From TrEMBL:
<keyword id="KW-0479">Metal-binding</keyword>
<keyword id="KW-0645">Protease</keyword>
<keyword id="KW-0862">Zinc</keyword>
<dbReference type="GO" id="GO:0008270">
    <property type="term" value="F:zinc ion binding"/>
</dbReference>
<keyword id="KW-0378">Hydrolase</keyword>
<dbReference type="InterPro" id="IPR051929">
    <property type="entry name" value="VirAsm_ModProt"/>
</dbReference>
<dbReference type="InterPro" id="IPR000555">
    <property type="entry name" value="JAMM/MPN+_dom"/>
</dbReference>
<dbReference type="GO" id="GO:0008235">
    <property type="term" value="F:metalloexopeptidase activity"/>
</dbReference>
<dbReference type="InterPro" id="IPR028090">
    <property type="entry name" value="JAB_dom_prok"/>
</dbReference>
<keyword id="KW-0482">Metalloprotease</keyword>
<feature type="domain" description="JAB1/MPN/MOV34 metalloenzyme">
    <location>
        <begin position="6"/>
        <end position="133"/>
    </location>
</feature>
<dbReference type="GO" id="GO:0006508">
    <property type="term" value="P:proteolysis"/>
</dbReference>
<protein>
    <submittedName>
        <fullName>Mov34/MPN/PAD-1</fullName>
    </submittedName>
</protein>
<dbReference type="Pfam" id="PF14464">
    <property type="entry name" value="Prok-JAB"/>
</dbReference>
Amino acid sequence: MIRAPRVTIRPAAMRAAVDTVEAAYPAEGCGLLLGHVRADLIEVAEAVASINVAPDPQRNFEIDPALRLRLQRRSREDGAAPVIGLYHGHPDMAASPSAADLAGAWEAGLIWVIFRVEDGQMIEARCWQLAADGSCFIECLLRVGEGRPAAYGPPRPVEP
């Protein structure tokens, strides 16, 4: 059985990410997640919006590499929480990784929070982690603060 991490996202970070993906609709809004990883427990402390630099932001997303470098430098120099993942919206699509998401995944272990957005409103949030071998995503249990899980079902690999 695959053991997926449990992910808790602070309410303010969730609100920031949701605001980003809703405002970007019908394009894919995106950003980076900052926080801490302790064994199979992951806490997202902050969500930082990125410009979507993909050539076709209506169908794909690409995080601004300058933002990632800036946040990594801040973490090194100031001790701020490091980048532990990313988020993006799926306009009028499931909150599951697409084939394009898997093809564009660059770093095993990062968590991906994917939002299903319909008519400019977030409908569902689910969390995934890229497997160590990069072959698939594993669903994680996502909680907002100390609340109930944001999506239900056992962790499972997803191969688009």
